[in-house]
Amino acid sequence: MKADDDEIQLEELIRAAIGRDCPPFDFQRWQQEHQHQIEEFRTRTRFLHASGTYGTGRRATMTRTFKIAIAALIFIGVCLGVPYLGHHPDRGTAVAQAIEQIEKAKAVTWKLTFYNHVTSKDGQRTWVETETREMAYKAPGLYWEALHPTAHGGSEHTCITDAVNLKVLSLVPAERRAFLRELAVAGAGSRGPFVRYAEQMNAPDLQWVGKRTTATGEVNVFRRSFPKDGSVGDVSRDFWVDTITKRLVRVQSPGADVYDPETDPLRGNPVEKAWSTMEPCCFVMSDIDFDAQLDDSLFSLVPPAGYTLETEQRAYVTEKEMVDYLGIMADYNDRTFPERPYSIESKRLNGIYDKPKANRTPAEQRLLDTVDHYKMASLNMMPTGHFVEDSTVKGSFRYLGNGVKLGDKDRIVCWYKLQGAATYRVVYGDLSIKDVAPEDLPLSVEP
Amino acid sequence: MIDAERELIEAARAGDLDSFGKLCERYYAPMVAVAYNVVRDHQLAEDAVQEAFARGLVSLDRLKEPAKFAPWLARICRNAAIDLMRARRSQVRCDGLVPAPVRGTEGSAHQTVREAIASLPADVREVVVLRYYNGCSYEQISAVLGLSKMSINGRLTRAKRKLAKYLRRKGALENMS
Question: Which of A17, A27, A54 sits opposite B14 (nearest CB)?
Fold first, then answer.
């Protein structure tokens, strides 16, 4: 008994001295910080696939139990004809054909509709308002977008974006004015508007929700759910695939499990002119035509005759601005560098925006002013993101600042290699910068 | 090794990044313990594991025996932790490597326990850290070190005997009672 007690006491003592609850592994964040290695891994595995090194081995390791379990699931699904465990018997074909269509498409048109809950000025009544845009895409990376006035103003205008050459032309017909801006990043995907949705549909956890009848026929509704960590922005996304043509006919985000525009109890409420708040509910991409015939002139970045053209070059972030921004974030974050180098979590940032200006601390106000400044300059990736993207060697940026105190001259916050440089720039907790040879860095770096 | 894990390893070797992610999630806690055994600093241990996973990913095609995935990853992890500590020692001050003195009886008792653990032979110390740093099960320790549960139990028993002796000599066990 005494020996047992001693052992328990000893174990408690050891746990107290070295024990710790290990935080869960954040794979998404890890991927963001190791893109170079992931790229190398993909290159290697592509090569190995091509040379036939893998494949047979994998098949051989599929166990008998696993095969029986899969067969049983398919059998039950087919027999019952219901979405057993969210899998449709025809899912493989339907989704595969829809994805193939998306990947092949060279010219696409669709409608983009936003659903918003708008509340009256006195806060007493809420109604649904929609805003619909006409959209077109032509490979590679050319977008055309027509925006219409809403119940609360705005003007008719058209935007043409070249996501490859990072330029956008805005046309305002009423004023016969055109604005040509350079973009810091491609807001629209250069691979096409639906490719990322095809990738999401290709995931193993895509679920079949059921069938739905629309004005043009019957569709299978598939749903992808996402963790509520803000990484995707929504908690779910619905994909409607026509049962006959096997084409994607609608994308809705979030899915109908979160918000369904057709059953929204507020949808019949009268629209008022004066309003106080507007809350986005969902967006829907519909009327999708993957065989659109589009003329090149639709995507011309040359304004029509008679338009006045104003041009605006994109802004760049200097190293000093980037380092100052890190310091501003740390100053706000209890004088400690935050977990991520790019921005403070939007929830916390919105919390500051919601405070009256008089109640904000100087550090909070400074952070807001800085964020607003870069947003106004269309630098939405904030100084760290743009500086890393524009001025450093790809994959060389490494952030080690999480928990480092602002002012600590001995602790490293981050390092990166400037384009064309032989050494790394190392930023310390006191915001000083030193040039360090790669072999002298605390962690190994790619040559 | 259970079939599900074998499937994950094969899928990862065939290029499925998500499967590699699932393996990382599964072995993150034991690997942090492995790294902590080297660097003795929580943050550095996590950094070392992040680095080890990156090294593991790009050399996955060189893993000869999928059944030994976890010991292979643990080896990479130890090396990453050693590299990290070596580099840190030569480059920057690292407060965590030498635990800061803590005032009071409890702090000094914890310090004594850490010294006692540090005095154990490396292979035994690793088992102790895996077991008590973040509570790895015998199964996890067995998978990571490639040892039988019997062998782990033996090492732990020997370790505890030595630790108890050390701590009694220093009066730390009595202090806690």
Answer: A54
